[in-house]
Write a structure and sequence with these properties.
Layout lengths: L2 H15 L2 E2 H8 L3 H13 L3 E4 L2 E4 L9 H5 L3 H11 L6 E6 L3 H8 L6 E6 L2 H8 L4 E5 L3 E3 L4 E3 L1 H8 L3 E6 L3 E3 L3 E4 L2 H13 E7 L11 E4 L6 E4 L5 H9 L3 E4 L1
Parallel strand pairs: 4-5, 4-9, 5-6, 9-12, 12-14, 14-15
Antiparallel strand pairs: 1-3, 2-3, 7-8, 10-11, 11-13
Helix pairs in contact: 1-3, 2-3, 5-6, 8-9
């Protein structure tokens, strides 16, 4: 079993049982406890498990939401591939929404200089990057700024979205499953994301493979409302087929 396959099995067991134990995992997966501890460290850095004494707990059981800076440090190669694949979904001109997130942030960094676009964002860091681009018209949504995600939320962000219609919304999510759709820990942020999807002609989800089968408190879209899911090759082919069966095209970059 490759390390990534073992880590996915550990995550599956943690979500099924509510927690995992280092010693038990080592025996069942026929590896050393040191190997399991390294795996748990990788999964914690990915923001899907939280280490506790002797084992780990899936973050959704704790209501735990990793900070943006923490999420930005993991799955970096995968996020860059996802962002590059997302360029194919950009209109030649027109308008887009780019949701706050670590993977959508990669897309902002590589937007082509030859497109005349209006870009709507709810993230001051992303707006700062975009504002230096002469070919872009940037609309920054106001509202309360959440420190954990650096995203604006609440009524001052919701009201403008209700009056907008864009070509494509590039969305981020904390969790995604066939049964529960797209979810995030904070209801206020879920409301903004829901309004973004509603405001767009097409919606494209950018999410690395660790986000799938994970479910958080607040739902903001069904998979049938998403046109394209762009993820990485770490996503199991059977799960990719399940996701596709629920509606969206699935791209493994």
């Amino acid at each position: 079993m490759y390390a990534e396959e073992r880590q996915q099995e550990i995550l599956r067991r943690a979500r099924a049982a509510g927690r995992v134990d280092v010693v038990s995992l080592a025996g069942e997966l026929d590896v050393t406890t040191e190997t399991i501890r390294r795996d748990l460290t990788v999964l914690e850095r990915a923001g899907v498990l939280r280490r506790v004494h002797g084992g780990a707990i899936p973050v959704e059981r704790m209501g735990f939401e990793p900070a943006l800076a923490t999420r930005d440090e993991v799955m970096t190669a995968e996020k860059e591939r996802i962002a590059k694949a997302a360029l194919a979904e950009l209109p030649e001109d027109g308008s887009v929404i780019i949701d706050a997130g670590s993977t959508t942030g990669r897309l902002v960094q590589i937007l082509p200089a030859d497109r005349e676009l209006t870009v709507v964002v709810n993230s001051p860091p992303l707006a700062t990057v975009l504002a230096t681009r002469a070919n872009l018209s940037v609309i920054m949504l106001g509202g309360r700024l959440r420190g954990r995600t650096l995203a604006t939320v609440d009524d001052w962000a919701l009201r403008p979205l209700a009056q907008l219609h864009v070509d494509v919304a590039f969305m981020a999510t904390n969790g995604c499953s066939v049964a529960k759709g797209l979810t995030t820990p904070d209801p206020a942020e879920a409301a903004i994301k829901r309004a973004m999807v509603t405001a767009a002609e097409r919606s494209v989800l950018l999410a690395d493979h660790t986000k799938f089968t994970n479910t958080y408190l607040a739902s903001f879209a069904e998979l049938s409302e998403i046109d394209v899911v762009i993820t990485d090759t770490g996503l199991d082919l059977a799960l990719a087929a399940e996701l596709s069966g629920a509606g969206p095209e699935v791209v493994r970059a």
